[in-house]
Amino acid sequence: MKDNYSIFLNRILFYHPSADGQISVNERKAMLEFFEKKRPHNGMTYTDYIFSIEKKIESTNIDSLSDDERGDYNTIKLNLARSYRIQKTFEASEVIKKVVEKIDTPQLWMVLTEDWCGDSAQNLPFIAKIAEINSKIDLRILFRDDNLDIMDLYQTNGTRSIPKLIAFDENGNELFQWGARPAKAQELVNELKSKGISKEEYIEKLHLWYAKDKGNELEKEFIQILKT
């Protein structure tokens, strides 16, 4: 496992650093331990993840919910509908099919997410479809809030942004990261925030962007990542 340490030394900027800007010994150890304990391997498949959301919705007694809880429930229900739509309509391009089909060694794609996350509902179904192209890719999903120790190793600009994908080879060496949204979507969010637009407004505009883009920007980014 010595190769893992050399890889970690080259990835300092991708992690939440200690006060002196360096990854601590404990952080390096944690990076190795969670993979060795097979926590990603024991994560949910995409099918299991969707089933867990369906089960939550079906088993919820709406009348017993507070106003805030009802809002969360409706958000999760809407996210599931978004995921269904993408699952039904998305067809991977021939370009990404060819790129993904060239993967000839096992990869584990670990995604940290939550069912209330709108960005996850808009991106994870595309990732799942891409992973299906090649049987050597094992997509596994972990709930972020149950795995904050892992999440904190893969923060985005110091935040626990989701969905976050980290790909590994079979020995636990990191291959690439992606998340929490396509770069073009993030540019839109940054622009809207700079204009002082409320969270509710920019989220609405973000979802309109996703609806128009139909996964094109995510595909482009994955093609570029997987080609390098």
Give the name of the CATH superfamily: Glutaredoxin
Give a count of the beta strands, DSSP E runs of length 2 or more: 4
CATH T-level fold name: Glutaredoxin
Straight-line distance between termini: 23 Å
Order of helices and strands: HHHHHEHEHEEHHH
Indicate the overall shape.
Answer: globular
The portion of residues forming beta strands comes to 5-15%
Number of helices: 10
Name the helicity range.
40-55%
Quick recap:
By secondary structure, the protein is of the alpha+beta class. It has helices spanning 2-9, 25-36, 46-59, 67-89, 94-101, 118-132, 148-151, 183-194, 199-213, 216-227; strands at 107-113, 137-143, 164-169, 174-179.
Set out the fold topology.
Layout: H1 2-9, H2 25-36, H3 46-59, H4 67-89, H5 94-101, E1 107-113, H6 118-132, E2 137-143, H7 148-151, E3 164-169, E4 174-179, H8 183-194, H9 199-213, H10 216-227
Parallel strand pairs: 1-2
Antiparallel strand pairs: 1-3, 3-4
Helix pairs in contact: 3-4, 4-6, 5-10, 8-9
